């Protein structure tokens, strides 16, 4: 029995139609027609509601299709009408992607190349823009409410979106092959530690150690590469902070969504065209020390602010946290050392390493695997100095194995080492007693 077209679900039919040249041509020509009609309406159009605009699009499109004898059926006409309504009232081809909860990143490399990340994996989308000017029109519509400028005199923008996401745009003459747009979406409800355990990011034993490390006011750096899940993990760790404490969060672009009662959120400000008015993370960190914080959380340590953060960790602001771009715990320490050197640290190399060793208690290394899954790769404790080098001990290491079913399974190896930090000694002794009594398998 053959399947007739009307047996195919409407969504699949619409998706297939959107990939055709007929759809692109009809949408472009009808859009030009609508712009002409809108010009005729003048200021009156600006007072219409979204539902009124949607009805206007339906009527005008129906008239256009009949006039030009376009060979489309009713469902295909509705698909075009929805797209045109999004162009006039929303964000055009980006609207559906921004509303899709599965989409993590949207990447535009010129008008003809649109990619999205779902579950950590990039894939090309059939989303179509008419030309580069169409991309810029949509981007400027995104930037308008936040007052950011994008033109030849200011060809780069990095900004926070009203819904908490982030957008980065580079245009000509810096971008050679058309506008480059990167949109990072964030969950409205950040993942909790139990949810990360359920997703397989780490196991319950590691979750228990992380909980006690945060509650015992250990200083923690979350290390990893781009899109490895650092921000999500930092959000989850912050949920362990007692609600009686005051948190000051500092970011370049506000991405953290801390589930806490008492949070002061600070965001750096780029300079104007002449470089004036800039407020850096380093400036905010210095000021935060006068704001009576119990803990300071830095969204990403990427410059001279590392010195202020180390100073805060060493002078009574225990329990502070931050993320840093690095490929391993040892590389994380090297990067912190390098950033401090670039920031003009005046002491010797050994004194800098001693300050880092005294400040940082734990490094949590997270990574994105080739299959897109995010996993905690290492839980490492900084134990002090040995022979002028920062010494560390790894408490847990990610070592997946292939089971009898031929599938790769998550597995974390405990090295059976007790934490060195005196902040955790009492808790660790209690865990050992429970383990001896058969109550804990850590």
From TrEMBL:
Gene3D superfamilies: 3.30.450.380, P-loop containing nucleotide triphosphate hydrolases. Residues 88-366 form the Bacterial type II secretion system protein E domain. GO terms for molecular function: ATP hydrolysis activity. Belongs to the GSP E family. This is Pilus assembly protein CpaF.
């Amino acid at each position: 029995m053959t399947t007739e077209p009307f047996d195919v679900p409407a969504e699949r039919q619409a998706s297939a139609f959107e990939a055709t040249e007929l759809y692109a041509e009809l949408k472009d020509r009808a859009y030009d027609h609508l712009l002409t009609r809108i010009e005729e309406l003048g200021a009156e159009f600006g007072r219409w509601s979204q539902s009124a605009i949607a009805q206007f699009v339906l009527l005008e499109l129906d008239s256009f299709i009949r006039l030009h004898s376009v060979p489309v059926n009713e469902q295909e006409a509705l698909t075009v009408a929805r797209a045109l309504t999004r162009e006039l009232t929303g964000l055009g081809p980006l609207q559906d992607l921004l509303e899709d909860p599965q989409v993590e990143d949207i990447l535009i490399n010129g008008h003809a190349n649109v990619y999205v990340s779902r579950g950590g994996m990039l894939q090309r989308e059939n989303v179509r823009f008419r030309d580069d000017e169409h991309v810029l029109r949509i981007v400027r519509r995104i930037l308008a409410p936040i007052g950011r400028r994008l033109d030849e005199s200011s060809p780069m923008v990095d900004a926070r979106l009203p819904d908490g996401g982030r957008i980065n745009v580079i245009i000509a003459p810096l971008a050679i092959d058309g506008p480059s747009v990167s949109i990072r979406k964030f969950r409205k409800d950040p993942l909790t530690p139990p949810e990360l355990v359920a997703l397989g990011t780490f196991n319950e034993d590691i979750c228990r150690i992380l909980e006690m490390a945060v509650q015992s006011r250990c200083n923690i750096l979350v290390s990893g590469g781009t899109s490895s899940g650092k921000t999500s993990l930092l959000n989850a760790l912050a949920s362990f902070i007692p609600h009686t404490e005051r948190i000051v969060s500092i970011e370049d672009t506000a991405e953290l969504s801390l589930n806490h009662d008492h949070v002061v959120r600070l965001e750096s400000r780029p300079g104007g065209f002449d470089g004036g008015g800039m407020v850096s993370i380093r400036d905010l960190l210095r000021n935060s020390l006068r704001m009576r914080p119990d803990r300071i959380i830095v969204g990403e340590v990427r410059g001279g602010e590392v010195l202020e953060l180390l100073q805060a960790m060493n002078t009574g602001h225990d329990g502070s946290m931050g993320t840093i771009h690095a490929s391993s715990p040892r590389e994380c320490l090297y990067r912190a050392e390098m950033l401090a050197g670039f920031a003009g640290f005046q002491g010797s190399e050994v004194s800098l390493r001693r300050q880092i060793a005294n400040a940082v208690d734990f490094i949590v290394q997270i990574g994105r695997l080739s299959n897109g899954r995010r996993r905690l790769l290492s839980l490492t404790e900084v134990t002090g100095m040995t022979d002028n080098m920062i010494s560390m001990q790894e408490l847990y290491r990610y070592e997946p194995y292939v089971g009898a079913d031929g599938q790769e399974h998550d597995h974390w190896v405990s090295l059976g080492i007790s934490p060195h930090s005196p902040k955790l000694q009492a808790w660790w002794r209690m865990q050992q007693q429970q383990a001896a009594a058969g109550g804990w398998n850590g």
